[in-house]
Write a structure and sequence with these properties.
46% of the residues lie in helices and 13% in strands. The protein has 414 residues and is of the alpha/beta class. The protein folds into 2 domains: 152 residues, Periplasmic binding protein-like II (D-Maltodextrin-Binding Protein, domain 2), CATH 3.40.190.10; 213 residues, D-Maltodextrin-Binding Protein, domain 2. It has a 6-stranded mixed beta sheet. The protein has a 4-stranded mixed beta sheet with strand order 8-9-7-10. The chain has a 3-stranded mixed beta sheet with strand order 6-11-13, sandwiched between helices. Strand 4 and strand 5 form a beta hairpin. Helix 9 packs across helix 16.
């Protein structure tokens, strides 16, 4: 009997200790950059261990997972993340009732690129990103192209360069090489409907000139700019690797360039992690969206971490973001591990990766066109414009029909 009482007493104590053990807190981050998934997980794990918080990173992006669709499903299934990503006003307008006001957070005074609405801060800039026409210097020099002469470019100049490179490949029996590596098929509509179309919204304009995007959101078309954009898309499609253009994935598009088999790539500095084994010099030239005098690349802070205002982890979420901006570990993660161009003025580290370094060089020279594509209506770029580009790329519609279809799509925004 005494042994039984001792056993029961021990069981009660054990159950009491178990019942009183505090539940482990988990900070859930839902983000859209597959390129940084591993390094962000590593950073989050180390940060969590230091701050007694378990951090779970969920990633959805690239050509295998539609972030916009999946984040909406997460909210509808009540699996709401504590930190998630929005891209400009389009994302904000969808989730504005779920986003915490971050005005007054310590990192706000450390950046010029915070996401603001009506004087209040809601978004932490993930990074400064940029894209132009990435180039393989060795291939262009071998083909006789003077890179330095193309810092300000016209469509006519690109047409001549593209033809010159094409002829070089043909003359030297290089059938696996492409003048342009670009993808326009389903799953890659962000390359066309967002990034390529952004040229229509900002090329040739002052950085803060929002005239064209304002017109689009009012259902108005700038016919002259759209015609020039169509000419540029036609030129790119003419000289692009046809298989990659019409059926290629992100890996196909970037891989072609990384292997040294493409002279130009229509992608941004987020692809830097793909070039560890690349043996050539690369950089950026402007897109020739307008017929003449294109002298800048597209640079901005396109995506922002926001905090779910209904989370019970707001203190931990705020600290996570503050530490990214303010600590040596955060700076090392952003620049050396994730190959980002940081949006925070206190970061003194310089990117070692080639395209991020090129973005910083163009930015410091003041040669930047703005990113307005994320201020279009939600899913307008990928869901509406992307399929129109795809039909054009596949030759299923003419350039005139492309212009007509895009015009009708903008008109329908009214």
């Amino acid at each position: 009997m005494k042994k039984l009482l001792v056993l029961l007493f021990s069981l009660v104590i054990a159950l009491s200790v178990t019942a009183c053990k505090p539940e482990e807190k988990t900070l859930v981050i839902f983000q859209n950059k597959v390129e940084i998934d591993t390094v962000l997980r590593d950073y989050a794990t180390a940060w969590g261990a230091k701050n007694n918080v378990k951090v779970e990173v969920k990633t959805c992006g690239g050509d295998t997972c539609a972030y916009g669709t999946q984040i909406l499903a997460e909210f509808q299934a009540n699996k709401q993340p504590d930190i998630f990503v929005i891209e400009g006003m389009g994302g904000y307008n969808i989730y504005k009732d779920k986003i915490l006001d971050l005005t007054g957070e310590p990192w706000v005074s450390n950046t010029d690129l915070e996401f603001m609405v009506s004087g209040k801060v809601y978004g932490f800039p993930v990074a400064v990103e940029g894209w132009g026409m990435a180039y393989n210097k060795e291939l262009l020099v071998a083909a006789g192209v003077d890179i330095d002469a193309l810092k300000v470019v016209s469509q006519a100049e690109y047409a001549a360069v593209f033809e010159q490179v094409k002829n070089y490949f043909a003359a030297n029996n290089m059938p696996n090489h492409a003048v342009v590596s670009m993808a326009a098929a389903s799953g890659m509509h962000w390359v066309t409907g967002l990034h390529n179309f952004n040229g229509y919204l900002s090329a040739g304009l002052a950085y803060n000139d929002s005239n064209v995007i304002t017109k689009l959101n009012n259902g108005e078309v700038d016919a002259a700019r759209l015609a020039q954009l169509a000419d540029w898309a036609e030129l790119l499609f003419k000289y692009a690797d046809k298989s990659i253009l019409t059926t290629g994935t992100y890996d196909d598009q970037v891989g072609k360039f990384a292997k040294g088999e493409a002279a130009f790539l229509h992608q941004g500095n987020w692809t830097d992690s793909s070039y560890k084994d690349s043996k050539f010099t690369m950089g950026y030239l402007p897109h020739a969206t307008m017929a003449e005098n294109n002298d800048s690349i597209f640079i901005g802070a396109p995506s922002y971490y926001v905090i779910n205002k209904d989370t019970n982890m707001s203190a931990e979420a705020k600290l996570f973001l503050s530490d990214l901006a303010a600590t040596n570990e955060g700076h090392d993660y952003m620049v050396n591990k994730a190959n980002m161009v940081p949006a925070f003025n206190s970061v003194t580290l310089k990117p070692k990766t080639p395209l991020s370094a090129a973005v910083m060089e163009w930015n410091q020279a003041g040669k930047a066109y703005a990113w307005w594509q994320n201020d279009m209506p939600a899913d307008f770029g990928m869901g509406t414009l992307g399929p129109i580009y795809e039909l054009f790329a596949k030759g299923e519609i003419t350039k005139a029909q492309f212009i007509t279809n895009v015009t009708a799509a903008i008109d329908a925004v009214k």
